[in-house]
Design goal:
The chain is of the alpha/beta class and 287 residues long. The chain folds into three domains: 94 residues, D-Maltodextrin-Binding Protein, domain 2 (3-Layer(aba) Sandwich); 77 residues, Periplasmic binding protein-like II (D-Maltodextrin-Binding Protein, domain 2, 3-Layer(aba) Sandwich); 82 residues, Alpha-Beta Plaits (2-Layer Sandwich). The chain is built from nine helices and 16 strands. The strands form three sheets. Strands 1, 2, 3, 4, 5, 11 and 16 form a seven-stranded mixed sheet that branches. It has a five-stranded mixed sheet with strand order 8-7-9-6-10. Strand 13 and strand 14 form a beta hairpin. Helix 8 packs antiparallel against helix 9. The longest helix is centred in the C-terminal third of the chain and has 14 residues. Bound molecules: 3-phenylpyruvic acid. The site of 3-phenylpyruvic acid has 14 residues, from helix 1, strand 3, helix 4 and helix 6. One of its GO terms (cellular component) is cytoplasm. Pathway: Amino-acid biosynthesis; L-phenylalanine biosynthesis; phenylpyruvate from prephenate: step 1/1. One of its GO terms (molecular function) is prephenate dehydratase activity. This is Prephenate dehydratase.
Length: 287
């Protein structure tokens, strides 16, 4: 009998992350059991600690940009690779306890609060916006608040329903093309599962000497000279000193394996350190 694989996600039940993980898990060779954690740092830690075999964490949203906690944790981790990327459409609902009259406090994860900024300014300009660890946690808090306090959550329909909330307004994100990229992360030391498709992208993280003129240009030139297409660049403070930065490069994997390998090796020589987080397939969800 094989032991069931485990996948960590941001909880409690009913988050966008859980919905995305349910979708991805159906495509995997072995469907994992989902385990929920209270914040993204704890989710990634659970893979590093071997409590779970993998995790699914958000990395970037089409309206709001990078999810810094994921990038910072990936930069510091020595032990993880990206097994797949999932592009997940995000639908935000405004939900409250039945009978809620005047909404004056709105809870959610920081990303949906930003994704719905236009709607909130138009309909609830006076409401206090309260950022919590996840959308499902927001629904839980609203369910526990005394009646008549005017609390609402921006959450998934399932997150609200699991907590007895009803929909006040549907699809309140400012742009209907709102999507989030998630990474499925696994431990390098664990046996990898069969990839869900051919490799499309590669993630490389490195620290470049911020004091040297043209240092970033020199690195980008290594990709450009070899015709390697960079699909994303992101930077985060290295957290060592002011002005030191870590760069995240998404590179396209095509029929360019040798060129890609050479470019990454050349960039490694120009970096303080470089980590190859692997080449991975991209799943575009159509739930
Ligand atoms: O809070 C959630 O539901 C999450 O899973 C985090 C999140 C928030 C917004 C977009 C994608 C993931």
């Amino acid at each position: 009998m094989s032991i069931m694989k485990k996948m960590g996600v941001l909880g409690p039940l009913g988050t966008h992350s859980e919905a995305a993980a349910q979708y991805l898990s159906r495509l995997l060779p072995e469907r994992p059991e989902l385990l929920v954690y209270p914040d993204i740092f704890a989710v990634i830690q659970s893979v590093e600690d071997g409590e779970v075999d993998s995790c699914l964490v958000p990395v970037e949203n089409s309206l709001e940009g990078a999810i810094n906690i994921t990038l910072d944790t990936l930069a510091r981790s020595a032990d993880l690779f990206v097994a797949s990327e999932l592009i997940w459409p995000v639908h935000n609902q405004l939900m409250a306890r039945p009978g809620t009259q005047k909404i004056c406090r709105i809870y959610s994860h920081p990303q949906p609060i930003s994704q719905c900024r236009g709607y909130l300014q138009q309909h609830y300009p006076q409401a206090e916006l309260i950022k919590v660890a996840s959308t499902a946690r927001a629904a839980e808090i609203v369910a526990q608040e005394p009646r008549g306090m005017g609390a609402a959550a921006i959450c998934t329909e399932r997150g609200g329903e699991l907590n007895g909330l009803v929909t006040v307004a549907k699809e309140i994100q400012d742009n209907m093309a709102n999507a989030t990229r998630f990474f499925e992360l696994c431990r390098v030391t664990a046996a990898p599962h069969k990839p869900v498709g051919p490799a499309e992208k590669m993630l490389v993280i490195c620290e470049i000497d911020g004091q040297k003129a043209g240092a970033l240009y020199d690195v980008l030139k290594e990709f450009a000279d070899r015709g390697v297409n960079m699909t994303r660049i992101e930077s985060r403070p290295a957290r060592t000193e002011l002005g030191a930065y870590i760069f995240f490069f998404d590179l396209e994997v095509a029929d360019n394996e040798a060129a890609l390998r050479e470019a990454v090796a050349a960039v490694a020589r120009k970096s303080k350190w470089l980590k190859d987080l692997g080449s991975f397939p991209v799943v575009r969800a159509n739930p």
